[in-house]
Design goal:
By secondary structure, the chain is α/β, with parallel strands linked by helices. 35% of the residues lie in helices and 18% in strands. Strands 2-1-3-5-6-4 form a 6-stranded mixed β-sheet. The two termini are 38 Å apart.
């Protein structure tokens, strides 16, 4: 039996804002697992060298955040299908055979958050996705995977929406940002993947005239936990799901791979992360 203490971490630049160390160290303590999880500020020029060194330093894996999520795909020996489809990785495993395994659990976290916190049937009708950045890629891939029949996509820069449609196929229809409110007619899932509504950012303001109370509305922003976007949807009678659950659920598969225990995402976990 190995007497090595497993170490994992999160790689990014900057990294001080990350909630991942707080979350993973909470789980390590809760399940009385001997292990450590640390934040690592890594410059882009040093990324390849750092990934080579980490297994030698006792690391069993790492989460990856901005700006390294795309670059690590080119450095990995094994890339999962979902990471390749999304074009980014957020979870790395340093395998015992020396190979670097890259995965993306963002889409899994997004879907689990909706499944566990709303009465949600992805096949019930069209989905609306606002934004076309990296987060939108994970959301779109996961929505298609669970059987959403149609995705209506709008972004402030139309070219990015068109590029996603070209990549993900004809189930995606692109709408101009100024007409985003029109996409809501008949939609059963509505997702904000933009930074609008986050602390320090202006609110996401689109007309909700066509929003049905049958829709499940979610925001991947979790600072603040309740955005104005979610509050407006709740006033229309919609089920609303905040973005914190996506953070929590996407973390669970990596924790299990690194530390050998599937952590529970429950109210105690949420409350700990929300505590100062």
């Amino acid at each position: 039996m190995s007497d090595k203490i497993p170490v994992a971490g999160v790689i990014g630049m900057p990294i001080s804002h990350s909630q991942s160390p707080k979350l993973h160290n909470y789980w390590l303590s809760r399940y009385q697992i001997s292990g450590h999880y640390v934040p690592l500020h890594i410059e882009q020029a040093d990324l390849a060298e750092v990934l080579q060194m980490m297994p030698k330093m006792g690391f069993v894996g790492a989460n990856v955040t901005i700006p390294h999520k795309e670059a690590v795909l080119g450095l990995a020996d094994i890339v999962t299908d979902r990471a390749a489809l999304i074009g980014a990785a957020n979870t790395l495993i340093f395998r015992s055979d020396g190979k670097l395994h890259a995965d993306n659990t963002d889409g899994y976290g997004f879907v689990e958050n909706l499944r566990c916190n709303a009465e949600w049937d992805p096949k019930a009708g069209p989905a609306v996705v606002l934004g076309a950045g990296g987060a939108a890629r994970a959301v779109i891939a996961s929505l298609l995977d669970v059987g959403v029949p149609e995705i209506r996509l709008a972004n402030r820069t139309r070219a990015r929406s068109d590029a996603l449609r070209a990549e993900f196929g004809t189930k995606i229809s692109v709408v101009e940002w100024v007409n985003a409110g029109d996409m809501l007619k008949g939609a059963r899932t509505v997702v904000n993947t933009t930074a609008l509504g986050m602390h320090g950012q202006p609110d996401l303001k689109i007309p909700f005239d066509h929003l049905s109370s049958d829709a499940v509305v979610t925001d991947i922003v979790y600072t603040p936990l309740r955005t104005a976007f979610l509050d407006r949807a709740a006033e229309k009678g919609c089920q609303t799901v905040d973005g914190l659950g996506m953070l929590l659920y996407q973390a669970a598969p990596g924790f299990e791979r690194w530390f050998g225990k599937r952590p529970e995402v429950d109210d105690a976990t949420r409350q700990f992360i929300l505590s100062s």
